[in-house]
Automatic annotation (TrEMBL):
Name of this protein: Fic family protein
Membrane-spanning parts: none
Keywords: Transcription, Transcription regulation
Superkingdom to which the source organism belongs: Archaea
InterPro entries associated with the record: DeoR_HTH (IPR001034), Fido (IPR003812), Fido-like_dom_sf (IPR036597), Fido_containing (IPR040198), WH-like_DNA-bd_sf (IPR036388), WH_DNA-bd_sf (IPR036390)
Source species taxonomy: Archaea, Methanobacteriati, Methanobacteriota, Stenosarchaea group, Methanomicrobia
Domain Fido: 175-327
Keyword 4Fe-4S among UniProt keywords: no
Length: 426
């Protein structure tokens, strides 16, 4: 696969392109593909009524008209606010304060559980994007049971999970170089070839971003500039004055800038996604605490990389990167809505069980409900503690009570008990 590029063109090419301004089918193509914000690599493969270069020139001319610019050090960033972006931003603003909130409020016993599950999903997927070879099932079991990681990949996932939980606690703090280093140290603990690289900016220019074929996708700025660039990034993140940038757009730009600066020898992607997550919570987008955006990114990893490449190859036009990330966020919100609908249906089933079973609390009914879906899966007291955020004694009493009622079979495993679902009473 060749690296994406955009074509060079001369004043004569521009003059030729303008000859088609009054040609209806060509102008229709210009507006159609600008609405989709196609990159040159996408446009040149379309069936066009004229040389793609001339369509491209006219598209670029129109894009310049409403372009918004951000100067970051010597880097000139730009983007267009497409109608599609405005629609997604409105949807997200409305969802964070409206229908989804009421939907989650209707499921109070699931709310904390969902937060934990989402943090797990985010941690696992963000690590898998960077190559962690651990399945979701094994990773979630490790986190729920608080098992010590057995491999570097498992350690990476645990680090991400710890970082995600920490960010929910520091969301009101200003971003500083020290905080970025702290986030990086937590994310990379005991996973790097050189442990000295934990929580330390790179001190070399050996870092390049490659594709699988060995092509250089990105050459980061000189390491001597990192301190200054990170200081400016923090000012950009903390300063709400001057040019207004929608918070979600600004969070995506921060994500991009960390990737562009590439301040660390390793862990840049995980750090970038964590800072995006921090910024969204800082700006009161509470919904992100329930969202596993990295899981969506993992499922579309090639498009994620291409969004970076399209942006850099087209004069740092962030529209491509924003387009991809807004779509990922929208998918994550849709996943939450589907979850709410599913949990509301399951809650009715749990209430039915509760009505037929004397002595069961709603949480105990929820435990049975989860076991109905995975009847062969053993469950432990520690898992109940982590899943439902209850005290150890409460979790123990729940499982022992269900065992007494005949729903569970209790077995000794080392120093602890495991519980097996026996089925519903007839």
């Amino acid at each position: 696969m060749k690296l994406p590029h955009t074509p060079e063109y001369s004043p004569a090419d521009v003059k030729k392109a303008w000859e088609y301004v009054d040609t209806t089918d060509i102008i229709d193509a210009v507006f159609k593909y600008n609405k989709k914000y196609l990159h040159w690599e996408e446009l040149k493969r379309r069936d066009l009524p004229v040389d793609p270069l001339y369509v491209w020139i006219l598209m670029k001319t129109l894009r310049t008209k409403d372009m918004k610019y951000i100067t970051f050090d010597d880097l000139q960033l730009k983007y267009n606010l497409l109608d599609d972006f405005l629609e997604k931003l409105h949807f997200l603003d409305k969802s964070a304060a409206g229908s989804i909130s009421s939907g989650l409020d209707s499921l109070p016993h699931d709310r904390d559980q969902f937060i934990i599950n989402s943090l797990m999903e985010e941690a696992i997927a963000s690590s898998q994007i960077e190559g962690a070879a651990v399945t979701r099932t094994i990773a979630k079991k490790m986190l729920r049971e608080k098992r010590k990681p057995a491999t570097t990949d498992e350690r990476m996932i645990l680090n991400n999970y710890i970082t995600m939980k920490k960010i929910t606690q520091i969301k009101d703090e200003n971003l500083t170089p020290e905080l970025i280093l702290q986030i990086h140290k937590t994310i990379t603990k005991d996973t790097l070839e050189d442990l000295k690289d934990e929580g330390r900016f790179r001190d070399n220019n050996d870092i390049r971003v490659f594709d699988l074929r060995g092509n250089v996708l990105h050459t980061p700025p000189d390491f001597a500039l990192i301190g200054e660039l990170i200081e400016k990034l923090c000012v950009f993140a903390n300063n709400d004055g001057g040019q207004f940038i929608h918070p979600v757009i600004k969070g995506i730009i921060l994500h991009f800038l960390i990737g562009y600066i590439h301040p660390f020898n390793d862990g840049n992607g995980r750090c970038a996604r964590s800072i995006f997550y921090w910024y969204m919570l800082r700006k009161d987008y509470w919904l992100f605490e329930y969202m596993a955006v990295s899981r969506v990114i993992k499922d579309t990893k090639d498009q994620y990389k291409l969004a970076y490449q399209y942006t850099e190859s087209d004069g740092n036009d962030l529209t491509y990167f924003i387009r991809y990330n807004l779509a990922a966020v929208k998918t994550a919100v849709d996943n939450i809505q589907r979850y709410i609908e599913k949990k509301q249906r399951e809650s009715k089933q749990a209430l039915t069980i509760l009505q037929k079973s004397e002595g069961l609390s709603l949480r105990q009914a929820e435990i049975i409900k989860s076991l109905i879906k995975n009847p062969g899966k053993p469950i432990t007291i520690k898992e109940i503690v982590e899943t439902y955020r209850v005290a150890y004694g409460t979790a123990r009493n729940d499982l022992f009570h269900l065992e007494e009622l005949g729903y569970l079979a209790k077995q000794k495993s080392g120093k602890e008990y495991i519980f097996i679902f026996r089925g519903l009473k007839k």
